[in-house]
Amino acid sequence: MAVKKEKTRQVLTDEIYESIKSLLMDHDIQPGDRVSIDDLARRLKVSQTPIREALARLESDELVVRKPLAGYSATPILTPSQLVELYEFRFLVEPRAVENATKVLTSEGIEQLKAELAEGKKIHTGSTYSTYRQLSEHDARFHQLIFKLARNGFIESAFLKSHCHLHLFRLSPTSPSAQQKALREHGVIVKAMIAKDPKVARAAMVSHLEGSRDRMLPYVFTTN
Fold first, then answer.
1. Per-residue pLDDT, 100
2. Which DSSP category does 77 fall into?
3. Cα dist. 94→17, 69, 129 in Å?
4. How much is the pLDDT for 124?
5. For the structural domain made of 2-74, what CATH number should be given?
6. What is the architecture of the domain spanning 80-222?
7. How far apart are CA 15 and CA 62, in angstroms?
8. Of 35, 77, 138, 196, which cross-links 72 as Cys (Cβ 3.0–4.6 Å)?
């Protein structure tokens, strides 16, 4: 009985986490605004406990920040200069990662890449977080998988700590056509990896990152 109760509580916490995350990603809670635990508890019709647990997780995601005596507030979105810096980091680590991953790619790794691409093809694109959440999660898994296949735990850890996908998707969703283009770019990267061509895979990753940056720049300038 205790195990069932704990599982039920975890499911509730997960649901509350996703609900608050959607409010933050869609800017229903504006960047920089105070996040009221009382208001969220009333809005979501739950006690304060799952709200606090969800906010602790969102703090680790860098979507909210907690200040002593002031409580939680929504993290500001990336500025244009921060967006450029984030992509400078990605250009440093991701082309090298995909090149290394291609050199040591196994049949198991190929199957993992194909499986993730198959998940991407199932995605329905849209203009709110509830509709593009699947794309955000697929995008994160795809890039993380490449780091894992490259077998460099330190770089993979640094990438995960950047929370780059949450920061980028929070800026504003790109158009459905742009989202589909990103998915096609993933396919080009995987094709080069399966062909065991590190240089082409690296070039495909650079092209993908350039496209991603250029798709995001208009949003970061309009929201700052």
1. 97
2. P
3. 29, 40, 25
4. 74
5. 1.10.10.10
6. Up-down Bundle (1.20)
7. 18
8. 35
